[in-house]
Amino acid sequence: MTARKRHQQTEVLVRWILIGLSAVSILTTIGIVLTLAYETFEFFSIVSIVEFFTSHRWAPVFDPPSFGVLPLVAGTMMIAVLSGLISIPLGLGSAIYLSEFASKKARKIIKPILELLAGIPSIVYGFFALTFITPLIRSVAPDTQIYNALSASIAVGIMTLPMVASLSEDAMMAVPDSIRQGAYALGSTKLEVAIHVIVPAAFSGIAASFMLAISRAIGETMIVAIAAGQTPNLSLNPFQSIQTMTGFMVNMALGDIQQGSIEFKTVFVVGALLFVITLILNLIARIIIQKTREVY
Question: Is the pTM of this model over 0.85?
Answer without folding.
Answer: yes
